Amino acid sequence: MSRWQKLTGGTSGDEYAARFAALARSGKDVHGEARFCAALVPAGARVLDAGCGTGRVAIRLAELGYDCVGIDLDASMLDVARAQAPELPWYRTDLAEFDPAQIGIDADFDLVVAAGNVLPLLAPGTEATVVKRLAAALRPGGLLVAGFGLDAAHLPVPPGITLPEYDAYCAAAGLALVDRFATWDADAYDGGGYAVSVHRAGP
Question: For a tag on the chain, would you pick the N or C end, based on fewer CB atoms within 10 A?
Answer without folding.
Answer: C
